[in-house]
Every structure is written in C-alpha cells, then in structure tokens.
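Structure (tokenized):
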C-alpha cells in the first residue's frame, strides 16, 4: 500500500459485533419503511404533489448509510416516472461478516498478533493523556514561507476561520441528518464544478456541471443553488 509493506491483523470484538448488529437491524426497518414511502410519493394519486424521480433518488441516497448501500439497491427512471428498490440478502450476509471486526495496519512486522491488538486497545489511554489540554486551542499547521509577523498572523487567522467555517458546514449537515463522513463531504464538494457556457449569440452563463447523487444531496442541503444567482 502506497509503496510500503504493512502487516495486517483482523481484530474481532463480540461487544462491537452485538452493537453493530443491533444498529443494523434497527436501521434496516427504518430504511425499508422510508424507501417504501419514497416510492409511494412518486406514484401518489389524489391530493399532494408527486415527488420527482430526481428528488426521490436524492432522498433515497440520504436514507441509506454508505456501508449499507449494496444491501438496499435502488434506481429511478425519469421517462417512466418509476422508482424501484430491492433487498439483497447476499449483500446483507457479506455485510454481517464485517460486524465487530477492525482491520489493523502496522509496519511493526516483528510484532506478534497479540501485541498488535493489545497496543491498539491501549490507544484510549494515550488519548486520555491529552485531556489536560481541554479548554485550550492547539492547531497544527504545515510549514509556510512567510517571514513578517503580520503576514504570519493573517495566515494563521485565515486557517482558523477556515476551520470554523468547515465545522459550521458539518454542523449544518448534521442537523439535516446527512450521513456522509467528514472526509467524504469534502471529497464530494470538491467535485462540484462551475462552468461558463455560451450558446450562439447569447450572453455567457455560469452553470453547474452534472452532479452525482451525493453531490446533489449536499448541493440541496447547503443551498448552493443561490451561489450563481448572486454572481
């Protein structure tokens, strides 16, 4: 991996297995119920507005955590106005095999399995050693090439403000029950691109490129459609 050899150990914890199993069974009921509700909202008859296939796909992708997506496959067809979902038993069995297990990577090739697992389990003690720093703000920064104090202060201020806005963004997504991980959120947002399009003699216009489901969900949750309206 990354040009380096690692020793891999699979750690199993019965307590974690039980907890993950219970969480999955609870989520399974919720997911199937919500997917059925989404399907019904697409084919709604009578009062109320039908849900579009685009919104149905966005809502469905939000309902299912990334780890469970293969168990509950879904798809939508714009022309036929059809939303379908299913339950994959084989995928569920494969998912269950991961419960309670953690894959540990180490470059300590001379350590035996027991020592690797014990060292991993003791990480909690190391983390507690840093609790004395509670209430202090310690932020590490990569080397930057600035000499004057004022510029260093400005650079540091921008770094801190960037972190503040980043945490606010994650807080806003959490309130809307967004399930993507923190790193995945950044990865998907970076894929949202703006292009300048000119058709014939018309004035050039800024437009968003076609987005995937996760990107569309973040786009809607953060209200990014207003970005181009204000330019």
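Design, position by position:
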């Amino acid at each position: 991996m990354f040009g380096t050899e690692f020793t891999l150990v699979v750690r199993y914890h019965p307590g974690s297995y039980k907890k993950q199993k219970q969480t999955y069974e609870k989520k399974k009921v919720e997911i199937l119920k919500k997917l059925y509700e989404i399907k019904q909202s697409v084919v709604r008859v009578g009062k109320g507005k039908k849900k579009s296939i685009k919104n149905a796909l966005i809502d469905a992708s939000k309902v299912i955590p990334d780890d469970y997506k293969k168990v509950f496959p879904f798809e939508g067809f714009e022309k036929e106005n059809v939303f379908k979902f299913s339950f994959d038993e084989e995928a569920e069995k494969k998912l269950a095999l991961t419960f309670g297990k953690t894959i540990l990577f180490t470059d300590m090739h001379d350590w035996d399995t027991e020592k690797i697992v014990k060292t991993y389990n003791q990480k909690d003690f190391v983390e507690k050693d840093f609790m004395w720093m509670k209430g202090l703000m310690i932020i590490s920064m990569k080397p930057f090439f600035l000499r004057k104090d004022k510029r260093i202060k400005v650079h540091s201020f921008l770094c801190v403000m960037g972190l503040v806005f980043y945490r606010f963004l994650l807080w806003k997504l959490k309130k809307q029950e967004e399930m993507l991980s923190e790193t995945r959120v950044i990865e998907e947002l970076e894929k949202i691109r703006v292009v300048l399009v000119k058709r014939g003699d018309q004035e050039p216009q800024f437009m968003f490129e076609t987005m995937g489901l996760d990107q569309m969900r973040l786009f809607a949750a953060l209200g990014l459609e207003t970005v181009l309206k204000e330019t």
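Reviewer-requested clarification: The chain is about 50% helix and 10% strand. The chain has a mean pLDDT of 82.
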